[in-house]
Specification:
alpha/beta
Length: 136
């Protein structure tokens, strides 16, 4: 996937409380978006601290996490940075979680069990300023 945003490397935050999933996702993103810069956080509070000093082109945000969940973190981040593109990732194919993330300002919602092609499409859509909400 070409970096359509600019000629600089994409800056991506991966926010998830499961360290193995976070690392695997980061490695997958590095293959999908060569040269991207990835920052990891294990909950919404840590992400918001990173956001004070970093600018992100894309945030992949888990919905359910301890300390601060993805809904609250998304809401706070969008309030301060309305241009931020957040793609929610969740194990839950629950319309209530999707609605909560959408209402918080997320640009998309994707199930963690989605294949790489669907993930790549969701990322591309969100980076291009579109929305991508999918429960399957």
């Amino acid at each position: 996937m070409e970096n359509d945003i600019s000629r600089r490397p994409l800056s991506i935050a991966v926010v998830d409380d499961h360290p193995v999933f976070r690392k695997i996702l980061s490695r997958s993103l590095a293959r999908i978006l060569p040269g991207c810069e990835i920052t990891e956080a294990d909950n919404g509070e840590v992400f918001l601290e990173h956001l004070k000093t970093h600018t992100y082109d894309l945030v992949l945000m888990d919905v359910k996490m301890p300390v601060m969940n993805g809904i609250e973190a998304t809401s706070r981040a969008i309030r301060e940075h309305p241009e931020l593109k957040i793609l929610a990732l969740s194990m839950h194919n629950d319309p209530d979680f999707l609605a909560a993330m959408k209402n918080a300002g997320a640009s998309g919602y994707l199930i963690k069990g989605s294949d790489q092609k669907k993930m790549k499409n969701a990322i591309q859509q969100v980076l291009q300023g579109n929305q991508y909400f999918c429960l399957n």
